[in-house]
Design brief:
The complex is a heterodimer of chains A (about 400) and B (about 80). Chain A is α/β, with parallel strands linked by helices. Chain A contains eleven helices and 25 strands.
Chain lengths: ~400, ~80
């Protein structure tokens, strides 16, 4: 039988999964684990038993959680009725009928993590199941407790695919895994891919690359296609609040005609109708619409084509001007010597904020701060240009593998 | 200290594609004599803070080189 999870060179087959499920007598409602197989096994048992589940980051600091009920029951066993499945197909069928409530949290980069309840329907809405997907091997490049990771998990699991853990691994380990296990599909943040490049070799086994969670750009698409020449690129708009919603081929997202009335753009912000959301007490809805905080612009309003600009709470106020850090990062990334860049605002008594940048250069290349500034002065308005540039070895990421703006 | 401040000012001038200046005097006005705009002043505060761990603009506007040096000397 096929492998289910490959983590740190350890292989767990579907046969083992079936056996472990049939032998299970308990599950953990709120479970924290660094082991990917144990984590997924617990999720599957909970769903099959119609038990509610709270997904917590393995590295979560419990003082971050205000909810004392979660703290009290952390990693506490709860008994379940015995399960018995003789085939994987029957198991998947029952899992999809699960009535469990799955609670997840936003990554909480701004303030208290937001709690959102999902059903199996909202989590698996975007899953495509087909015989032609049977042989896919997934590079798992997300935190499994968050929306994007769950999307990849259900997509792979329902099709009986192998899941190779490449989240938080070094680039050498990632490329070794792609080659060794002949990974065909990778879904990750643009930041994850940017950290892999540049690389001289080609990896032909990869046929599908999915990006999501952050703004992507043309230069990144080009680098991806150079390294993965057989890959088709997919761009996904998903959120903790709503799950996977929209897909794009390049940078432009298409609102499907049937759900045209479920999306609105108001003052440049994307609004989503409540019918597409999970449940949460933390949502603030205005006339049935949820304000996503994602700033977008129409490419073609007639046909429902739009493009991302930034996150609303990421805009930096510099002496009254609003600066979109993604725009500045994109301009800097056009320089061939740059591997990775983070733009953020540093509080300042003169202007409110000063734009600062951390830059990781490509190995053995050099660039001066003044050269970058001169280059940018032809690309950006003065107030958008970073006033302090630090050259660094690593750039800090969030738990979900996105850039962490300080 | 004056040497270091001059170095920082020149760094800002170079970043803005301006020529280096040779000397600074305590009486020099940061805007009028040295030619810094408000973005440059913000950059100056960041760089001085990096170097000396002092926010020179913390309690009100600073307009001359002498006032910067005074703030740094108090620390």
């Amino acid at each position: 039988m096929k492998p289910f999870v490959i983590d740190k060179e350890q292989i767990f087959h579907y046969k083992r999964l079936l056996k472990d499920i049939n032998n299970s007598h308990h599950y953990y409602k709120s479970y924290k684990s660094f082991k990917l197989y144990d984590f997924f096994l617990n999720c599957i048992i909970a769903l099959l038993s119609n038990k509610n589940l709270i997904l917590l980051d393995a590295d979560l600091n419990l003082s971050e959680m205000k909810d004392s009920a979660i703290n009290a029951h952390l990693n506490e066993k709860e008994l379940i009725e015995p399960l018995h499945f003789d085939s994987f197909t029957k198991l998947v069928d029952q899992l999809l009928k699960s009535t469990s409530i799955i609670t997840i949290f936003t990554s909480g980069t701004t303030g208290q993590p937001k709690k959102v309840d999902h059903s199996i329907t909202t989590l698996t809405r975007a899953v495509r199941k087909h015989e032609k997907y049977t042989d896919q091997v997934w590079g798992f490049a997300y935190n499994p407790t968050h929306m994007a990771g769950l999307q990849v998990f259900f997509q792979a699991f329902e099709n009986g695919n192998a899941i190779v853990n490449i989240f938080n691994k070094s680039r050498i380990d990632v490329f070794n895994a792609i080659e060794k296990y002949q990974i065909t599909n990778i879904s990750a943040t643009p930041t994850f891919y940017r950290l892999l490049f540049p690389v001289e070799k080609e990896y032909p086994s990869v046929v599908r690359i999915t990006l999501g969670g952050e703004k992507s750009d043309k230069k990144l698409f080009e680098s991806i296609l150079k390294t993965f020449p057989n890959a088709k690129i997919n761009n996904i708009y998903a959120s903790t609040e709503a799950g996977s919603l929209l897909a794009a081929n390049g940078e432009d997202f298409q609102i499907p005609k049937i759900s045209k009335d479920k999306f609105q753009i108001k003052n440049g912000e994307l609004l989503i109708h409540r019918s597409l959301l999970g449940r949460s007490e933390d949502f603030s809805l205005t006339e049935d619409y949820y304000y996503t905080g994602d700033l977008v612009e129409w490419v073609d309003e007639e046909i429902g084509l739009f493009r991302f600009k930034s996150r609303k709470n990421e805009l930096i106020n510099v002496g009254g001007y609003k600066v979109n850090p993604s725009e500045v990062e994109e301009a800097i990334l056009e320089l061939p010597q740059i591997q990775h860049v983070l733009v953020y605002g540093k509080p300042n008594s003169v202007l409110g904020n000063v734009i600062c940048a951390e830059i990781k250069l490509i190995k053995e290349s050099s660039l001066l701060e003044s050269e970058i500034r001169t280059y940018l002065s032809e690309k950006l308005q003065d107030y958008k240009i970073p006033r302090r540039i630090k050259f660094v070895e690593t750039i800090k990421l969030t738990r979900t593998g996105k850039l962490q703006r300080l | 200290m004056q040497e270091k401040v001059l170095q920082i000012i020149n760094q800002i001038r170079i970043n803005n594609q301006l020529e280096k200046i040779g000397i600074i005097n305590e009486k020099d006005d940061l805007r009028n004599d040295i030619g810094l705009n408000s973005f440059d002043l913000a950059e100056l505060t960041v760089r001085i803070e990096d170097e000396f761990d002092v926010d020179i603009f913390e309690d009100g506007i600073v307009s001359t080189v002498g006032e910067i040096l005074k703030k740094l000397n108090i620390q």
